[in-house]
Amino acid sequence: MVLSTPKIDYKMYFYYFLSTILGNTTQSVNMRFFLAGVLKSHAFLYIYEMKKILLLCLLGLFGNNLVAQKDTLFWFVAPEISNDNRSLDAPVFLNISAFNEASTVTIKQPANPNFSTITVNVPANTLHIVDLTSSLAMLENKPANSTLNYGLLIEASKPIACYYEVSAQNNPEIFTLKGKNALGTHFYTPFQNKWFNNSNYTPTPSSAFDIVATENNTSVTITPTKNIVGHSANVPFTITLQQGQTYCAQATSGASSAHLGGSKIVASKPIAITIKDDLMNVPDFCNDLNGDQLIAVDKLGTDYVVVKGFLIDETVFIVSTTNDNQIFLNGSATPITTLQEGQTYTYSLPSSFSAIHIRSKEKVYVLHTSGSGCESASAIIPPYICGGSSVINFKRSTNEYFAVHLIVRAGHQTGFNVSNATATINANAFVPIAGTNGQWLAGTFSFPNVPTNTFVSVSNILGTFSGAVLNGTNFGTGFRYGFFSDFNAPQPNFELGNDQNICTGEAISLNAGNQYTSYLWNTGATTPSINVTQAGTYKVQVSNGCGTWTDSVKVTWRNTPLLELGNDQTVCTNSTITIGTNSNFNSYLWSNGATSSQITVNQSGTYRLKVTHDCGTSEDSVKVVFLALPTLDLGSDLTGCEQATFVLNAGNQFTSYLWSNGSTSSQITVNQSGTYKVKATHLCGIVQDSIKIQLIDLPPLDLGVDKWLCQAENMTLKANDGFEAYQWNTGETTQNINIANFGMYIVEAKKGGCSIKDTITIAKKNIPNLVLPDKVLVDCQNTDIFISPTNDFDTYLWSDGSTQKILKITKSGNYTLTVTAQGCSQTATAKVEFEKNEQFVPNTFTPNGDGVNDTFVLPDALKGAKLSIFNRWGTLIYESEKYQNDWEGQHRGETYYYVIQHKSFCFANPLKGWIQTL
User: Fold this and answer.
1) Is 697 helix (H, G, I), strand (E, B) or coil?
2) Total Cβ atoms within 10 A of residue 380
3) Angle of CA points 119, 120, 123, to nearest 5°
């Protein structure tokens, strides 16, 4: 608090001094409220310093450092605070708290190259304070209506919580950083509109909201509800920011009516916004910094709980994000007001309630101005259903009064635990919150006995809770107020956990947690947990005012644990082998008495292991055989005949083989002389051996090709030279034999104990017989006569030199034919004789034209012969080369002479005679 300069009133100081001594009783609190409202003296500034010493001695009240939103990324822009040359804006700290894991944290200004990056390592479950006072000129976002480079980026390797603290002695405040929940593209600004900013300080204090961009080329459209520096009320304007750049929208007046409540900010990319109300006067005497970091519209809710503090005039400011938004208090069915978009409803908390329940039809911002006496501070209230943490951490750093507000679901109040034994939370001290049907409780608790600089953790094992800190005095140095709970739904990634694998016959409990309002399992159960006795997939749907989530878990039953010692083992003699299992069991018992998971053995045998497990026992065995390196012996060298084959066998005791001929089988078959080597590989080494094969060479034995003879004849069969003995199938033992008969002849020739055989066949050729007629009688009435053999042969040769099979006969005589077939020849003779052929030639004809005997007609045998007619004087009067019986004569009663010449061999001589016409 910074004191104003009213008139002096020593009587009022005395009352205040008494109230300080009385402590924090109801009467003393009321008295403090009264005194803080009437103190009006300059002289009190001096007496106050004395009073503060007395307060420190009597009360030992303390401040805090508390965990806020849990995250790994935070953006923040620090507001400008008036210092009035009295360090009313310093020192400033960034308070960083780690949870169960240590975290490496970097602090930088991406748009400001002059800011040196800060890196700190925060151990698990500790708080680290970073003093940023020396960088204040690069932190405070001034001047207004300017694009600046002062945005802070805090990044952590593991989740942390942090907040920005203005720790000025008389003007403190904390700004809880909300991590990714502070980032968004749509905001409205909640501001108080009851109290003014005291203008008696330099620079002149005001209300303002500060914007930081998280990405490049971020377009931000601002519609202020009141005049701001450089821009008029209700006139939208757009600015463009790069990553880490900032902008301050500052009210042009400190009057309560000039505050910027309901201003609308819409961005093209995520931004973060800080609100501040600097040196706010409550009522006319205390001047304190109020502020917080906003959350975006999409993170807001419709149900809020405000726990009353000790400010003279506790007030809530509700800002609507939509039109026609009805606001309900403490469960009433009748709205207390209906708000339009950006409109603010101001509600002073009555003394009859310690906690107020606020419900809206649509999303709203709730800003709570609280404190003690006239010392004030403000905080953005999180939705109590959709917000909450399972643990908050803090550290007592000063001896001023410290209290925590806790909001928790009924039934979970017994789940709180405080890590420091000097601090406790009495579950019976919680009271129901009006309008929640007894489902939610609230309580305020102080920890006066916790030593300073001691880290304290408050957690709840039954569910999430909302927690706020109130830190300060009712009249003196100032006040700090902030919510440190998660501003988002408690289970955005609801999980039942990993799939379960349990022993047969056992049961398992599946628990969805107690922080939801309804449960529906696929079994039909509606309880937070169910007992499972059968394998299957179990699904649950949970819901609360923030949403609905579904998850499933698969439950399987495992049988008696399976133990696998692996395949039987074969190892070499004089070595060892380790057998056993790498799986974890409760106990081990080997057949040799060992109790370890693995044993080393050097003797052959079957080793059995029995193990115990949560589900029972299991046994397995493995056979171990120790082997010596086998010997390899191909045997003695071998001698044999050239036709012999030998099978060389290296045995089947080896894993691989390599013979000198390239073979890789265990045995080979050989039929040639030579030395044969084999190299055999065994588990225990490599061995090799060789054998020599000697084959006796025999001379060639060839009786020649089989022979086909036309007839049996004497011939000599000769066996080859170079043998020691011969044996024929005729019984003869000479190298050569004479034969005169057809048949098969075999000879066996021997040398050096080896023998060889050959065979020749002498066969008679089967050819057809040559048959010619012994005697051929020819009737000269036929003009063409032929003779031929009855069978076919390869060649023909007649006695007249003809080589055709058929021979034409032209005269009588003996005709001889020699034929060949398959190299054999035959000869036969046919005798041809012509029968005597007497032909009657008429000697008269009557050429009188009567159609009868009108021409000279020859017998048929002479038809076609040459006819010559002569008269009685020998003159040729008619001639025809081929007479056709058509000569009529020249004169009747005349005598003529004829000559007939025929080509047939039957008429070798011409026929002559006379003929007379009648």
Assistant:
1) coil
2) 23
3) 155
Cα angle at 778 between 772 and 784, to 5 degrees?
90
**What would the pLDDT profile of 732-791 be if each residue is shown by its tens digit?**
999 999 988 888 999 999 987 888 999 999 888 877 788 888 777 665 555 567 888 888
**What torsion, rounded to 10 degrees, do the Cα atoms 236, 239, 244, 245 define?**
-110
| Identity of residue 375 | E
**At which residue do the structure tokens 């005169």 appear?**
740
Pairing verdict, β 707-709 and 754-764: parallel
Segment holding 37, helix H or strand E: helix 26-38
Residue 397 pLDDT class (50, 70, 90 cuts):
low
User: Both tokens of residue 47?
Assistant: 């007496």
Q: Which of 910, 908, 884, 882 is nearest to 897 (CA)?
A: 910
Q: Contact 376/288 with Cβ under 8 angstroms?
A: yes
Task: Please report the beta strands in 584-673, taking only residues with DSSP state E, as ranges in sequence order.
Answer: 587-590, 598-601, 605-613, 616-627, 638-641, 646-649, 656-659, 667-670
Measured CA to CA, the distance from residue 78 to residue 186 in angstroms comes to: 20
Report the alpha-carbon angle 46-52-58, nearest 5: 145
Tokens of 862: 């002479």
Task: Dig out the tokens for 756 from the structure.
Answer: 């060889």
Neighbouring-strand partners of residue 185: none
Q: Phi/psi class of residue 745: alpha, beta or left (left: φ > 0; alpha: ψ in -120 to 50)?
A: beta
Can you say how many angstroms the Cα of residue 780 is from the centroid of all Cα atoms in its chain? 113
The DSSP code sequence of 814-856 is: EEEEEEEETTEEEEEEEEEEEPP-------EE--SSSSSS-SB
